[in-house]
Design brief:
alpha+beta; Rossmann fold; OB fold (Dihydrolipoamide Acetyltransferase, E2P); six-stranded mixed β-sheet; 23% helix
């Protein structure tokens, strides 16, 4: 089953403000594609155009190998016939129906009660069949919403920030569930989120939108491997494997690009993958091998970029993972930080924060 082929322009007319125009030209693979970007970037417009709630001005939309919109061929398949599922931020379950009835409603006459119960079991909601949505937590409602969306046997599934209203632990569990459901169903997922850590954890492919334009697209690890991926907070984000624990010392080991780093003690099994963050202001730069230090990590690298960053300077250091470090202009001058210079980064274990 294919992913998505998108080549269209879509305009949303907003009362009291200028019209918003979205221009997209993408070919997306199978698996989970994550769309991220700031508020107002066009993420919801993208989903509504694919779903059929927002009619593009021109272009074509192909979902899982089926052409659902083509202005040149006068094709505009109605929403109900596109077989594209949608999971909303709040779940949007029918409050007057039980959990099982919600799933059966979506399945229509094509699925048996046994099939509906199997889906609920898949999402960990098998014992909630007789409950009404009001008796479920936000995370529980989203599990049921996933089961309901899949019950209709969609050719593709759209997810509009489905985890944003629930707590961190529930988000982590649901993200893992989403990976499992996509792998089993084979249905291409298009998942919208503001959370870049969530994007890195979930995505086979990542799209970054801003002001109605695609500003970057590619493998999530490649896009988020760059320095300052989260420009708002200047965080370095990376995916690492948990390789060991040292309870007596109070720290764990993680591996990225073949290099071992030490972080605070993790409650994660060995071999598991997690997303970590390192704020650009946390590492210290040395231009000679340091002596004994309280920093658990000393990483050698080479300066690849030096650029102005407001009143400060952002120094990009090539290590097994490119890292951005915020320093003062005085530090750049005193240390002679220029492109090509070998440096050493001193990183405390507590500075490496596990996000998933």
């Amino acid at each position: 089953m294919n992913g998505f082929e998108l080549d269209f322009t879509s305009t949303r007319r907003l009362p009291g403000s200028e019209d918003f125009k979205l221009e997209v030209r993408l070919e997306l693979p199978d698996g989970i594609t994550v769309v991220s970007g700031p508020s107002g970037a066009g993420k919801s417009s993208l989903l509504l155009s694919i779903l059929g709630d927002l009619r593009p001005d021109r272009g074509r939309i192909v979902a899982a190998g089926r052409r659902v919109f083509d202005s040149d061929r006068t094709i505009d398949v109605p929403v109900r016939e596109r077989r594209i599922g949608m999971v909303f931020q709040q779940g949007a379950l029918f409050p007057h129906l039980t959990v099982l009835q919600n799933v059966l409603f979506a399945a229509g006459g094509d699925a048996s009660r046994t099939h509906a119960r199997r889906l609920l079991d898949q999402v960990g909601a098998g014992s909630w069949g007789d409950r009404f949505p009001a008796r479920l937590s936000g995370g529980q409602q989203q599990r049921v919403a996933l089961a309901r969306a899949l019950a209709a046997r969609p050719r593709a599934l759209l997810l509009d920030e489905p985890f944003s209203a629930i707590d961190h632990d529930a988000r982590v569990r649901l993200a893992q569930l989403l990976l499992e459901l996509q792998a089993e169903s084979g249905v291409p997922f298009l998942h919208v989120t503001h959370d870049l850590a969530e994007a890195l954890h979930l995505a086979n492919h990542l799209i970054l939108l801003d002001a109605g334009r695609v500003v970057a697209t590619g493998a999530a690890g490649d896009l988020l491997a760059g320095p300052g991926a989260d420009a708002a907070t200047r965080e370095n984000l990376f995916l690492a494997v948990v390789s060991g624990h040292h309870p007596d010392g109070g720290y764990s080991e993680i591996v990225i690009g073949g290099t071992t780093l030490f972080c605070e003690r993790l409650d994660r099994p060995r071999g598991s993958r997690s997303v970590f963050s390192l704020r650009s202001r946390d590492p210290l730069i040395a231009v000679a091998p340091p002596g004994p230090t309280s920093a658990r990590n000393v990483v050698r690298g080479t300066v690849s970029r030096v650029e102005s960053d407001g009143p400060g300077v952002l120094v990009v250091v090539e290590t097994p993972h490119p890292l951005s470090v915020s320093v003062t202009p005085a530090a750049v001058a005193e240390l002679g930080l220029v492109v090509g210079k070998e440096v050493y980064l001193l990183i405390k274990a507590s500075a490496l924060r596990c996000l998933t």
